[in-house]
Design a protein that fits this description.
heterodimer, A: about 140 residues, Four Helix Bundle (Hemerythrin (Met), subunit A), 6 helices, globular, B: mainly alpha, two-stranded antiparallel sheet, 2 strands, about 60% helix
């Protein structure tokens, strides 16, 4: 059976390779991406869709980067995973706060995350990625 | 974080459009300090109860959507600020792992002062 997760990691790792020498702790990057979520939220609340999309892309990029750096520097641990997952869930709450529908999904995702920690086969809902796609489609007036 | 900073933060992320529900949402969670302090727990994650952790946060945010959007935003802003500036066990009671970004006190004071100054500037403008 094809290991899609390993396949995805290979692709993202090759893209992020130039950033491998950055000397910043992965947890600091997670924290910074959380701060950036406030900026995303402010842009979307102010109807500055393009800026919101760019900032959300930066948040998702940083989210990938912290995992990449942790793997590269052999700092992977369950504690690190908890930091990363909790930052992601709070980031979702912050970004989705104007929308009740997305907030409910973010709340459900918290429990999915707990479930995933117990069973690695459970996939976490990629809500911010979906939101980014919908925002891009909305920006180009395709939906 | 102190209640004024929590109110200032929700004021900023709501771009000034707050009501009494947002203020209530931003401060109500700290009621658990009454329990913690009366039980002699003053520091870090010990001073917080399960109300401050993500699984209960998710539940409260889900319920608060039905009550009021502003109240929900207040709760989210509270969790956000406390998570970044303090020590927490985000997935308690399922997992006991403690998360602490170890921000130096001067930065915490700086963030608090920044929030107070921003709300001050907002009120002047």
């Amino acid at each position: 059976m094809v290991d899609y997760r390993a396949f995805l990691y290979n692709i993202t790792d090759s893209i992020l390779k130039p950033f491998g020498k950055i000397d910043v702790p992965p947890n600091a990057i997670s924290c910074f991406s959380l701060f950036l979520s406030v900026v995303v939220s402010l842009f979307f609340t102010s109807n500055l869709l393009l800026y919101g999309i760019v900032a959300l892309f930066a948040v998702l990029f940083l989210d990938r980067l912290d995992g990449f750096l942790a793997r590269k520097k052999h700092l992977e641990s369950f504690d690190g995973l908890v930091v990363d997952a909790s930052c992601d869930r709070l980031s979702e709450f912050m970004i989705f706060h104007p929308s009740s529908f997305w907030l409910v999904l973010a709340a459900v995702n918290c429990y999915v995350t707990v479930w995933r920690f117990k069973n690695k086969k459970i996939p976490i809902l990629p809500l911010r990625h979906l939101f980014l796609i919908i925002a891009i489609l909305g920006f180009f007036k395709l939906i | 974080m102190d209640p004024i900073s929590h109110i200032a933060f929700v004021y900023i992320i709501a771009i000034g459009n707050i009501d009494i529900w947002s203020v209530l949402g931003a401060v109500v969670l700290d009621m658990d300090k009454i329990y913690a302090y009366t039980h002699g727990k003053f520091r870090g994650h010990e001073s917080r109860t399960i109300l401050h952790e993500l699984p209960i946060a998710a539940l409260l945010v889900g319920i608060s959507i039905l009550i009021n959007n502003g109240f929900c935003l207040g709760l989210i802003s509270h969790y956000f600020l406390d998570f970044i500036l303090g020590e927490s066990k985000p997935f308690y009671p399922f997992f006991e792992n403690v998360v602490d970004f170890n921000l130096e006190l001067k930065y915490k004071i700086g963030i608090g002062a920044g929030l107070w100054l921003t709300i001050g500037l907002f009120s002047i403008i």
